[in-house]
Amino acid sequence: MKHQLLSLTFLAIFAACQSSQESKDQSTAATAESALAAGQSGVEDNDSQKDVVKVAVGSPDHTTLVKAVQAAGLVDALSNAGPFTVFAPTNAAFDKLPAGTIEDLLKPENKDKLKVVLEHHVMTSALAADFFQEGQSMGMVDGTNATFHLKGKDVYIGDAKILASIRASNGYVHVIDGVVVPK
After folding, report:
1. Where, by residue number, does the polypeptide cross the bilayer (predicted)?
2. Mean predicted lDDT score pLDDT of the chain
3. What pTM was estimated for this model as a whole?
C-alpha cells in the first residue's frame, strides 16, 4: 500500500511537471508565432541595445516621427540589422512645417508620399556625426542625395542641425531640428 501511494505521488508530480512544460512550450510557440506575424519589430528583447526604431519610440521628443514611421509601414524595415543612419526630426521640427502638412501626409492615401519623405532621412550605413564633411553629398534611401554642411563644430543635413547622436544596435540616430524635404 505504501509502495502504491509513493508511485501515485510520483505520477502526480510527473504529470504536473509535464503539464507545466507543455504550458511553457505553448507560451514560447505563441510568442514566436506573434513575433513572426509582426516581423522583426515584434521580437521582444529587453536586454540588448535598442535598434533605431526603439530609440525613437523611447523618446518623448519623437512621437510624431514614430507615428509617421508606423503610418508609412517602415517599422519592420528599420528594425532589421541595418546598418542605418537615421536623421530623426523632433516633434518641434515637424511643427515647423506648414500647418496641416504632417496631418495630410499621415492619411492612408498619402502613404507613398510619406514614405519618400521618411526615406530621405535614412542612409544604409552606420555613420557617426563626425564622418560628415562640408559640402559632402550622400545617397539616401529614397534614391536622392542630401548635402551636409559644417558650421563651426555643428553638422547640418540640408538646413537641419544635428542636435544629438545616439548609437543603436543597428546604426545611428541623429536627432535633428528640421525636416529634410527631398528636392
Report:
1. none
2. 80
3. 0.73
